[in-house]
Amino acid sequence: MLYLKEANLEDIEQEYRFITGMPKDECGFMNPGSGCTREEFEREILPGYINHSKGIGIKEGRVPDTAFFLWEGDNLVGLFKLRHYLTEALANGAGHIGYETAPEYRGRGYATEGLRLTIEKAWEIIPEDEIYMSVRKGNPASLRVQVKNGAYVHHEDETHFYTRIKKPEKL
Question: How confident is the model at residue 28 (pLDDT cuts 50, 70, 90)?
Answer without folding.
Answer: low
